[in-house]
Fold this protein.
Amino acid sequence: MKSILDNRPALAKQVNDVAEVAGYLWQKGWAERNGGNITINITDLIDDEIKNMKPISDVIQIGRQLPNLKGRYFFCKGTNKRMRDLARWPMENGSVIRILDDCSSYVIIADNPVKPTSELASHLSMHNYLIGRGSTYKAAVHTHPIDLVAMTHNPAFLEKDVLTNLLWSMIPETRAFCPRGLGIIPYKMPSSFELADATIKELEEYDVVMWEKHGVCSVGEDVMEAFDMIDTLSKSAQIYLTAKSMGFEPTGTTQEQMKELKEAFNLPK
Ligand code: 13P
Ligand code: ZN
């Protein structure tokens, strides 16, 4: 079957990276059933032939206007599709969409009419926000990491920056490679615009946000970077939980040691 990826190595690389990350999410046990979703802004890789491709779906409403997305293109995981299947067959479990000129609707253009993720409101709102602030970030990843989600069942961890500081203090890598920390969003209905709005509000300060008792959402230059930040935070959570299960409270690196890292790595916070 003909694919939009044929003879487009740069686009194929982006989609293959999504597939690779989808495989990691499954292997880590973060992607039960259809859990989690990934979208990437592929507009920079779109040529005239793609621009002229006919829709393979009806016009689908987003439900809100996202003015920065006019004429943009995204590869999106399909709703109800499994990460473990996206890993092996990305174009059967995801699709390329084109945002129409009204900025509030889209069509699917390739390869199959796979309806995008139910979290599209959040994903597109994040891309709209990122473009608006002049960011070069292209990827958004949402997943259900066991350790990080478990921590949100403790109200003390939901206070601003409590988890950020705890996770930063477990291993220097987390301080260095997730330098804006972890934002917390109180529980909201999955797929809702309320969740989308709360998410973009937190992106003003964080690259990774926690959806209480649900999952994590992260944005980055590319899908690998977005994944790596969640992976790093999860590693810290596991170190914390391992210490606790050995029967002691981990001491954590000191404020002084964290300050030293901030200076050495020229970190934003
Ligand atoms: P989708 O299958 O619609 O992407 O939903 C998965 C999910 O994690 C919802 O929050
Ligand atoms: Zn989810």
